[in-house]
Amino acid sequence: MTPRPAQVPAALKPIVELEAILQDLLIEHQRQLKHLDSQQLAMQKMAVKEMEAARQQQEASRSRIIALEQRRRTQVMQIARINQLQTEPKIPQLAEMYPQRRVQLMKLHADLKSVMTDVANKSFIASRLASAVLGHLNTAMRIINQAVGGGGVYTQRGTPRMARRIGVMEAVG
Question: Residue 88: inside a domain, yes or no?
């Protein structure tokens, strides 16, 4: 638990502020993971409105994560200047520099890393699913394009000849 700023010695205020930012980042990444889960459920049900709502929530969450990440970097650079460091320190280095806050920093670091890995894995799955759906849509559009474009041309085996592969943007419209 992060102590209140009034109870923290002046030397520890920057690191406590960093902990608060890391806690906010953790909460926002957990929110992002929840939105990814709801999007995948909507994709399974083919609920377009729910998918769009989840996408919008994810985008808003990404914007908040970007803002928090900028605040984190600014705070870390401030800590580096206070400690006269030449490079931006990583969380484990900060934990070594502030042993009294080591446990809290390392716990936040581990939790954040875990949630970020989960978000990356869920995002990968969603992108693969979207890619597969677009591939099927592309094939359907080629068949329709061939049928609309003129008389069907068939091979000797009776299968239709396919038109050239159309781009994703052409298929989606």
Answer: yes
Residue 50 domain flag = yes
27: left (phi over 0), alpha (psi -120 to 50) or beta: alpha
Residue at 118 is within a domain? yes
Give the pTM: 0.70
pLDDT digits (tens, 9 = 90+) for 48-79: 899 889 889 999 999 999 999 999 999 999 99
Domain with 41, as residue range(s), is: 5-125
Residue 159, C-beta contacts closer than 8 angstroms, at least 6 positions apart: none
Could you give the number of structural domains in the chain? 1
